[in-house]
Amino acid sequence: MPDFHKRRDGRNQIKIYAVHPHAQANDLRLNRVAQRVLKAEGWSFDLKIILADDAELRRLHRLFLGADEATDVMAFAGDAQDSGAGEIYISLDQAREQALQEGHTLQRAVERLLIHGILHLGGWDDSTRAERAKMLAYGERYLSAR
């Protein structure tokens, strides 16, 4: 497990930035979901949630992972000087598509991606199909625990 989630004060500061031109997520609910996951997992860190579009996620995906395609969520841990921080970028375009495919609301799709990003910051890996399936199933319990 990375050590960035071990803040001394045990409090989580969460900031949400909507850079998507048509952002429609409920910031209060996102904050509550993030707090619930962090508390349940025993993790403490400052979190920036950036609601962006496919173009921004594609740029980040290309820059950091070498994949020239959009993705739905990317999570970045802070550096050594910023050990209590993390950033989660969520594509609202991808969330909207997923909501339509799954018959859910956009809010629920964004919450699912947020939980996935938080789990990545906490050390979860989904580089194989089995790991991804396990991670998605684990994250679903936070969606159903409203």
Summarize the entry for a quick read.
This protein has 146 residues and is an alpha/beta fold. The chain is 48% helix and 16% strand. The longest helix is centred in the C-terminal third of the chain and has 16 residues, at 106-121.
Give structural attributes.
146 residues; alpha/beta; Collagenase (Catalytic Domain); 4-stranded mixed sheet; 4 strands; 16% strand; globular
Question: What are the SSEs and their pairings?
Answer:
Blueprint: E1 14-18, H1 27-41, E2 46-52, H2 54-65, E3 73-77, E4 85-91, H3 92-102, H4 106-121, H5 129-144
Parallel strand pairs: 1-2, 2-4
Antiparallel strand pairs: 3-4
Description of the structure:
With 146 residues, this protein is α/β, with parallel strands linked by helices. It has a single domain, classed as Metalloproteases ("zincins"), catalytic domain (Collagenase (Catalytic Domain), 3-Layer(aba) Sandwich). It has five helices and four strands. Strand 3 and strand 4 form a beta hairpin. Helix 1 (27-41) runs parallel beside helix 4. The longest helix has 16 residues, at 106-121.
Return the structural class: alpha/beta
Mean pLDDT: 88
N-to-C order of helices and strands? EHEHEEHHH
Query: How helical, in percent, are the residues?
Result: 40-55%
Give the overall shape, derived from the CA principal axes.
Answer: globular
Q: How many structurally independent domains?
A: 1
What characterizes the major β-sheet?
Answer: 4 strands, mixed
Q: Which regions are unreliable across 5 or more consecutive residues at pLDDT < 50?
A: 1-8
Over all CA atoms, what is the radius of gyration?
Answer: 14 Å
Assigned CATH architecture: 3-Layer(aba) Sandwich
Strand percentage lies at 15-25%
Distance between the termini: 27 Å
**Biggest sheet: strand arrangement:** 1-2-4-3
Please count the beta strands (DSSP E, at least 2 residues each): 4
Name of the CATH homologous superfamily: Metalloproteases ("zincins"), catalytic domain
**CATH topology annotation:** Collagenase (Catalytic Domain)
Number of helices: 5
